[in-house]
Amino acid sequence: MKKLILISLIFTIVISAQDFKRYEFKSGKVKYTSTGSMTGTEAMYFDNYGMLELKETKATLEMMGIKQVTDTKTIMNGKWVYTIDKNSGEANKVENPLYSMFPKGGDLEKVGEEMMINMGGKKIGTETLLGKKCDIWEIKKLMSKVWVWKSIPLKSEVNMMGMNITQIATSVEVNINVPADKFKIPEGVEFKDVGKVDLNSLMGN
Description:
- Helix content is 12%, strand content 50%.
- It is mainly beta.
């Protein structure tokens, strides 16, 4: 489960900020498909410029011949990430390892680029996906690439911990009405605190 949480965080690592807007749009919905070591689909909803975010993921992760099938709901609310696996009933709470790295203030695009550069990221080109021009960022320390349109990741490639995963958007909607209950933490669920993912160790710092 921790690996899936980490993968999810990497897919949204590009632009995030404390007391700041993560995305340039107030709300939205993006649908993705994943291929490689992890296959499946994901729907991502956000509101309040990304400070509230829900991911509904149905995926199969394969490592060393072992398959892990998950049907998860992941809710990010600022500092915390809550994950519920509908198949196993497992519910975890983890502190967002990116939260302490979030810069404050400034222009959204510049802040996002500064954060990427501080993580060792480098802009290596552009590509149009779904008719939207994306900047391509490579983060060698995380062995990943991210395609970003107006601060929203539309494609990610990750090659780490023996996994090769590509996630790509199939549709994008912005400034839509997203019901508030999408981001509600389910009542009666006991979340296990699994600690904080050590992003620095993964980055070799």
